[in-house]
Specification:
The protein is mostly helical and 224 residues long. The protein contains 8 helices and no strands. The chain has one domain (2-223).
């Protein structure tokens, strides 16, 4: 697998596949799901950009108003995508650019900074909307800590661990550095999914809202 990930053609082909997947997603969001909330639009766009067809399949399974029904499995998918996109994924990628590109640090420093930024971004995505809804800052931080820590921790340990195992000695100029980053992000999503499932089952978090009722509610407000 390392030989495949190290080949320049691998990351080039993957970039093309991911671009096509994002184009399909954006077409569906604009054509068939224009009511989708802005935050989840970004979450799905980044999820598909990171994971290509896998992320697109998760969107079609759980993120459209056309899904036949909503259930816990789909809510867990949406919650994981929310965490994965802007929180863990965004923080991790930002950490790579800051630590490697700007500061020229080694991979262990990259890993540490990426994990730290993943927590910051993940908590911010939860705290921000809660404060906008009128929740106090202290309560919002407490809710974010209880609802997001486990998911972020599992996702980052899995993703960073896999990335270091595959490309621990690779530099930014090597294809293996980038292909392993993409692969490890998807591994993190898979690892964090059961955690979000359990958190929803136990009532620690609600999970992202059901797309059909959200769409119906927004259409109703527009009509009034």
């Amino acid at each position: 697998m390392i030989a495949l990930l190290s080949h320049p053609l691998t990351i080039t082909v993957w970039a093309g596949i991911a671009a096509v997947s994002v184009a399909v997603l954006l077409w569906d969001l604009c054509r068939n799901n224009p009511e989708s909330a802005g935050l989840m639009r970004w979450a799905w766009t980044l999820t598909v950009a990171y994971s290509g067809p896998f992320g697109l399949a998760i969107y079609f399974y759980s993120g459209r108003k056309q899904i036949p029904r909503d259930d816990l499995w789909r809510r867990a998918c949406r919650s994981t995508a929310h965490c994965y996109s802007g929180g863990c994924g965004g923080g991790e990628i930002a950490g790579v650019f800051i630590a490697a590109r700007l500061l020229g640090l080694g991979n262990w420093w990259i890993a540490g900074i990426s994990v730290a930024l993943a927590y910051v971004a993940g908590f911010a995505l939860t705290v921000g909307p809660l404060i906008q809804e009128g929740v106090s800052t202290g309560r919002a931080l407490t809710d974010a800590f209880y609802s997001e820590t486990a998911s972020i921790t599992v996702m980052e340990v899995s993703a960073i661990g896999m990335d270091l195992a595959i490309a621990g000695k690779a530099g930014m100029g090597e294809p293996l550095f980038w292909s392993s980053l993409v692969f490890s992000l998807t591994v993190g999503f898979v690892a964090a999914y059961p955690v979000n499932d359990l958190l929803i089952r136990w009532g620690v978090e609600e999970g992202m809202h059901d797309p059909p009722p959200m769409a119906a509610g927004q259409q109703g407000r527009a009509a009034t």
